[in-house]
Amino acid sequence: KYWIRRDSKSRSDLPASVLHLECDRTKKKRLTKILGKLRESRDLPGSPKICVVDFCAYKPSHLRPVIKSLKPRLSHYIFISSDSIYEVCRESRDSSPHGDSGDSGDSGDSRKDLAKYPRLLRESDAVRPSSEKEQRRLKDKDSYGHKKLRCEEYLARKSREYNFGATSLRLCDVIGPYDTTDRFWSTYLWFKYARDYPVLPDKELQTRLSLTSSQDAVSAVLRTLQRLSEGRGESKESRDSWGSRCRAYNVAMRETPSLLEFLRMIASHAKKGQSGLPEDRRMEE
């Protein structure tokens, strides 16, 4: 979905040189067969090595057949992870996932927003509690985050075992072009017809949101691929120092609006040409 232009009538804007194979990863036998063909394919341009960009795996059983089938040629695995993994880690903080430095762009007024958090989440915070009882409690609380973190842990083990690199990109709620969840579109329609259907928002209106632009997600993938294409990881020395090591990056926008601010932004577009925002008072109440 990230590779289709908004003005395109085609299902995909991938170059003709890109080999496009369709499969259902839940049908493991069929998937293994297709991946075997990919591994043996002579149609792949350039290097005989393969880099995987995995957008839809959310449990280790999804990763296993891919790694097993491609391991003779697998050089790097880019896994699209989630900020939900921090929900099953040692501490639960009112934090925003902007990385170790918390600096993903220009400094300025946006720093005032970031200062509202006790501390930004760091990639190194992704450590499960030592207590098995606490691990089980957090797993029950957020099974999605648990499964995504299990995928990262599985990748770390297999990257050492088979000597390939791995990068986990931890995305927040993704907004922007190609978002297929319809969650924000539904909210837009909700506001547009609020005269007939009153808006009843969540009580946690001051909760601040962590968001990821879909275009930033694409840029993060492309930058990782660029580093690989520049020759990083080709020599044994560089493989030992970078290519074989698992890395993780938080990918988030600097803006961290409250739920109320975010709803107002959507409402302002839905109510263009209409007088006022009568739902504002109801939301604040």
From TrEMBL:
Region (Disordered): 91-113
Domain NAD-dependent epimerase/dehydratase, residue spans: 131-231
Any one Pfam family match given in the protein's UniProt record, by short name: Epimerase
Signal peptide: none
Biased composition (Basic and acidic residues): 91-101
SUPFAM superfamilies: NAD(P)-binding Rossmann-fold domains
Record-given protein name: NAD-dependent epimerase/dehydratase domain-containing protein
Species for this entry: Lotharella oceanica
Lineage summary: Eukaryota, Sar, Rhizaria, Cercozoa, Chlorarachniophyceae
